[in-house]
Design goal:
Radius of gyration: 14 Å
Structural class: mainly alpha
Shape: elongated
Mean pLDDT: 86
Number of helices: 3
Order of helices and strands: HHH
Helix content: over 70%
Length: 74
């Protein structure tokens, strides 16, 4: 899965689009909250990965940093 795909999937897990279908204001607020939740998850993953400096983990750190950037673009 690409970082962009992962960012979208993770953010959508925190967002129920059907619930806010007719309310644009709450839709926007909840979308921002979903992004914040997704970023919290990614930050927790990064904390765990950065505790170990082997090559495989550093590749994963780079991947999750890209996911974080993609979430911020949404």
């Amino acid at each position: 899965m690409t970082p962009e795909q992962n960012a979208k999937e993770l953010t959508r897990k925190f967002f129920d689009i059907d619930f806010f279908e007719n309310d644009k204001k709450h839709y926007c607020i909840e979308w921002l909250n979903a992004k914040k939740c997704a970023l919290i998850c990614v930050n927790e993953i990064l904390i765990e990965l950065e505790d170990d400096n082997d090559g495989y983990r550093m590749d994963r750190v780079e991947y999750w940093e890209e996911v974080k950037q993609e979430i911020n673009k949404l």
